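Subject: sequence -> C-alpha cells, single chain

Hey, anyone have a minute? Need the predicted structure for the following. Not urgent.
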Amino acid sequence: MHMTNFDALKELLSTPKKIAILPHKNPDGDAIGSTLAMYHFLKKFNHTCNVVAPNDFPKFLKWMPAAKEIVIADYQAKRAEAIIHQADIIFILDFNTVTRIDDLGDWVKKSKAPKVLIDHHREPDTFDFMYSDIEMPATCQMVYNFIDAMGEVDKIDKEIADCIYTGMMTDTGGFRFRNTSASTHRIVADLIDRGVEVDKVTSFVNDSQTEARLKLLSLTLNNLTFIPESRTAFMFLKREDLLENGFQKGDTEGFVNYGLSVENYIFSVIFIEDTVHNFIKISLRSKGDFDVNEFSRKHFNGGGHMNAAGGRSDMTMEETIEYFKSLLPDYQEKLSKVTI
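Reply:
Had a minute. Here:
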C-alpha cells in the first residue's frame, strides 16, 4: 500500500479523535462496506466515529453491522453538518472529489480537519493523505490493505470482515470482473477465516427481492434492445415505470449486467429517468478491454472504471437513446475486436 504521509497519519490516529467517515451519494455496497468497516476499526482505538452519507442507501445493505447508525444528511442535515464541522479528521471513502457528495462537499471544503482519501477511481482531487489506486477492484480491499499497513489485521473481527467482504463482492460483480486479483481472493480467504459466512452475506445482498424490483426487472428486460453489429445491448426505464411500480433506492441495482449475459455481447447500458429531476442516469458495463470509463467521460459527463462506469444526460430519454446509438458506429471496430 502506498499512502502519502502515512507515518504522519499513524501518528495522528495514535490518540482519540472525532472522525467523520463519508461515502459518496447514492452509496453502493463498496461505499457502505468500506465506511462501516473503517467505522468499526477506528472505534477499537477509542476514536469517536460517525458515518455520514449524503442520502439513503439500498435496503439490501441495511443488515450490515451498525448500518442503522449511519447519519443520512437528507434526513438529518443539521446533525450531519455538525459532525463534519466538529471532526478532527475526515475520511473520504470510495469517491475522490467533493462534487460527489452534494452539500456535504461544501461543509468538507470549509472544514480545517485533515482529509484522508481511500479510493480506486480515476483523477482524484488532492487531499492531505491519499491512498489512490485505480487498479484496485474495490475500496473495501483498500481498507483491508490500510488496516494491514497499520499493523492491525488481528483487529479484523467478524463485523469488520462482513463489511469488507460485502464491498469486495458487490464491486467485483461477485468476483467476476477482470480486475479481481489473486490478492483479492487471498483477502477473501482471510475474511472467511475471520467469520464471514459467504452464503448468508450473498443471500442478504442478492435475495432481498421485492415485488417492485421484479416488476421493474420485467419492464427492463422487455425494453432490452440488441445491436449485434456493435455487440451492444441497452435498456431503459422511464419515470412513470418507476413511480407506478413503487420504486425504492437500489431496486434497479445490477439490471445493466443482464446485457452482458448474452453470448458475444461485451457492452451493456441502462438509461433510467430520475424520479424527481429532468435528467437520465446512465450505467455502463463492459467485458474485456472496452473502456466504458473513457466512453462515459467523453460523451456522458461521467466516469468510473474500465468495465463499470456511470454518466448522465440532460436530454429526454428518446434523445439520449438516439444520441447513444449514433455514437456506436465510431466504436464498432474497437467493439468487434474485443476478446473475452
